[in-house]
Amino acid sequence: MAQTGPWTGDPGWLADVLRAEGVRLVEDPGWRDRGHGDFKDIRGVMVHHTGSDNASAASIAIGRPDLPGPLSQLHIARDGTVSVVAVGVAWHAGVGMYPWLPTNMGNWHMIGIECANSGTSPTAPHRTNWPDAQYDALVRCCAAINRRLAQNSSRTIGHKEYAGRAQGKWDPGAINMDILRSDIQAQIGTIPSPAPTPRPPVPVGEYAHILLFRGSEGPQVAQLQRQLKYGDQAYAGHLVIDGLYGPQTEAAVREFQRRTRGLKVDGIVGPATAAALNLRVVSPAQLLLLADSETD
Length: 296
Fold this sequence. Notes:
Elements: H1 14-20, E1 24-27, E2 44-49, H2 57-62, E3 63-64, E4 67-68, E5 74-76, E6 81-84, H3 106-109, E7 110-115, H4 132-148, E8 156-158, H5 159-167, H6 177-188, H7 219-231, H8 233-236, H9 247-259, H10 271-277
Parallel strand pairs: 1-6, 2-7, 2-8, 5-7
Antiparallel strand pairs: 3-4, 5-6
Helix pairs in contact: 1-4, 4-6
């Protein structure tokens, strides 16, 4: 029997478990070296539609001008072909909440599946414009991953369930997630010793939407830099307030986290770190109101 159980780090076993599940698999060149850093503990699968029936696996691997790829770990074409495009973290989840996920941290805990599909509409009946081959491949992919992680199908969620409120997402469109989970569970079968479901505290309030990490940019990053710089000159006094979350900003965040009890030291500013910083929440419209009197 194949190894099963919880997993922390990049899922190098993805191609193996998908092939064993009987999907038509393509390993995209370079997928084992592609990702935005390493996974934390992998808690499940998040399902998306691309917004276009013709979106290619390459478009998911490469990304787009405003968001560099990879944009998920898997791509499923309309003919059911499954492409593994990345092994590391992908930008697919964004900000959002789910009971067993740390707020805004879906990218680091969930394997993303992008299906080449328009989604039709938020209210379309289940499987409208979803070819049988594509839907079957989706069920098999989710089942293979959930089973490998000793999870039942409750650990497969839709992007709309995580980011619907925070981002207005409705993908995967024309998919009833309860029916999908039922089909996935039938494919999984019985898990003799299912992994426990984590129940992290869910931060609420003004910081629920905060997610800043290396590569982020804008006025909220500038405000973060400003508060770090003037909060402790010893380790952050050198920061340039340019609104670009680069390696120096990440290092300063890590040092703040190291010095603050109860925070994970990961260089990512989510709700918990933002609250500990008492970070001022800034909208783009407020950027001009922030007078930068600092000199380099």
